[in-house]
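[Meeting: bench + compute handoff]

Bench side (C.D.) handed over the final construct sequence. Compute side (W.E.) agreed to return the predicted structure before the next meeting so the bench team could plan truncations. Sequence as handed over:
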Amino acid sequence: MTGKTHQIIGQVVGVGLLVSLSDSTYHPATGAAALVACSIVSLLPDIDTPAAKIWHYLPFGLGKVGGQIVNPFLQHRNLTHSLLGAALVGSILWQLATRVPVYWGINAFFVWSIAMAAYLSHLLADAVTVDGIPLLFPLQRSFGFPPHPFQGLRIETGKWFENFIVYPLTVCTLIGLFIIKWAVIHALFFL
């Protein structure tokens, strides 16, 4: 999948979990941090590609430099697209989340959980593409859905099905979540 599709899928996952799992005791900062985290972390597995969308978020041209530095060390769809990579990223994100000052009113575990769900959504989305993902890296076997002999039904990254079916349906899902769960969203952020 392309970066825009991964990001919108991550936002659907984030908003869906936010409105489903949050309660009235959460500070609006928790919701805001969760939405920002899911938007960024949903792109994180593609950090192994110099042209990935996540590198564009770094200021002062650091993204271009960072992408070129990482490129020789990581091949696309290897470590960052595996359960091992998810565990490593999860532990790093947990360390970052627990360092947020308490007075900010952010529930670190809640934000971390939503961020990890967004990360895993990236892996799941790439698993339905033609190439699949090396889920059990360092083993080089690629896993995908649907499995053999139905792998012909998988999506080609950046082609018509992703651009005209998957992406628009995901955008409509996000809009639908905002409409259907507006009362919950309003209570979380504005009351």
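W.E. noted at the follow-up: Residues 3-190 form one domain. C.D. will use this when planning the next construct.
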